[in-house]
Amino acid sequence: MEVNEQARCRELAKSSSFYRTVYSEVEEVGWEHLVRLGGDLTFLSFRVLDKKGRVHIMEIQLDKAYPRVPPMVSADVPYIFNLKWSMNSRLKNLVQQFQEHLEKLQGFWSTLDEIDRSLWVVDSKQASLAMSCRQIHVGNDCLIMLCININDPRSLPECRFMGSGTIVNSLRKTWKRNGHRWMSNKPFTENIECILKTQLPRPPDKEENNLLVECGICYAQYLPIGDELVPKSGSGTDYTCENNNCSKAFHSMCLVDWLRSITTTRQSFNVLFGNCPYCSEPVAVKTNTTKN
C-alpha cells in the first residue's frame, strides 16, 4: 500500500468511529498486504499467499454499521467459506478464516496444476483458480472436458467428449468400460491414459521469449519513447518475480519507482530490497535502471 494512501486513511480515521475501526484493523493485518482501498473505506482487498505460493486476492465489502453487520467476502476460489462472525471479530480474523479455507483447497489446486503441467490444456494460462474444469486436447480435433471434484480431487472426474462423432464415440465407450480402473493413489495423467488406453498429447513447447508481456505496475508492454527514459526508452519488461507461482513481469524502472514509495523498502548501495507487489515474495532490483 502506498504511503500517501495510508496517510489518507489515517486522516479519515480522525472523523468517525467507523474509519478509526477500519484503519486500526488494516494495521493489524498489515499495510503491505493491502491491494486496494475504496474512497469511503467500505471496500478493500488484501493479497493473501497460500502455502504453495499461489497469490489470492480477497475482496471485502463493509457496511457502515461494521462490525455489527458482518462483511461480505469474494475471492477467486471455487466457493466461499461460511463466515464465522461476532461483534468482537476483526479483519485479521477474516483473513485467518480465508487462509484456513485456502488450505482446504490445496489438494484441489494441486490436481489442476498436475493437469496443466502434463497435458495439453486449452487456454491453461487463462484458467481461474475458481474453475474446476479443464478442456484437454486429445488429438484429431477432439477435446475432453474434465470436471474435478472439489472435495475429492483425486477421485474419478466427470468427463465430456467433444469433437468428431466416430472418434468421440469410441473414446466415450472406452471411458465407460474402463472407469472402474481409476485409482486415487495414482498420478492423474496416468489414470486418464490408463482408462482411455492411449497416450494424450503433452503441452506444446512455449516460446515465452516471443510473447509480449505487460508490466504488472504500469500495465504496458513497452516503456514510452522519450529522452528522459534513455537507455530504457521503448524497452519491454526486464524483471520477473522469481516465485514460480507468481512470475509477474515488470519494467525494472517501474519496480524501482514502486519500491521507493514503500516505507519497508531497504537499500544497499545501488540495490533496492523489498517485496513483489503481487505475491509479497522478496525482490531486489538495481536503481541504475531509473530515469536520468
TrEMBL record:
A biological process (GO) of this protein is: protein monoubiquitination
**A single GO CC term, please?**
Fanconi anaemia nuclear complex
Q: Which SUPFAM superfamilies would you find in this protein's record?
A: RING/U-box (SSF57850)
Limits of the FANCL C-terminal domain: 213-287
Q: Which stretch is the leader sequence?
A: none
Q: What are the residue boundaries of the FANCL UBC-like domain, all occurrences included?
A: 17-105, 108-203
Q: Could you tell me one molecular function GO term of this UniProt entry? A: ubiquitin protein ligase activity
The protein depicted here goes by the name Zinc ion binding isoform 1
Source organism of the structure = Theobroma cacao
